[in-house]
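User: I'm putting together notes for a lab meeting next week and I want to include a structural view of one of the chains we've been expressing. I don't have a solved structure, so I'd like a prediction I can at least talk through. The sequence is below, exactly as it appears in our construct file.
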Amino acid sequence: QVQLVESGGGLVQAGGSLRLSCAASGSTGSIHFMGWYRQAPGKQRELVASISRGATFSRGGNIYYADSVKGRFTISRDNAKNTGYLQMNSLKSEDTAVYYCNAVSSVSGSHWGQGTQVTVSS
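Assistant: Thanks for the context. Below is the predicted structure for the 122-residue chain, given as structure tokens.
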């Protein structure tokens, strides 16, 4: 099993920055995909950014960004800390949502964090 704990959300003015963290524990060596999703009120959950690798969650990896966040958000990870990050810059009011961390393990499947609220005031 994999457990995910998110942190870093909050209230920020438009144009500001936040960094979300997703600390993983448990069978972290089996994680081959980590993504950040968001869900705004009345909207479907959408994939914002992800980092994946064919085998295990280690060096390298394919990175994906939604068009709406390209050039503003950066996904990264610290393997030593088993933590993933989403650096969000130049935030806009439309970025307001609950952000969820997702990790997919080759052993135990998909796992979700509890979600963290990001509110951008205009």
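A couple of points you could mention at the meeting. The chain has no helices and eleven strands. Residues 54-58 have pLDDT under 50 and may be disordered.

User: Perfect, that's what I needed.
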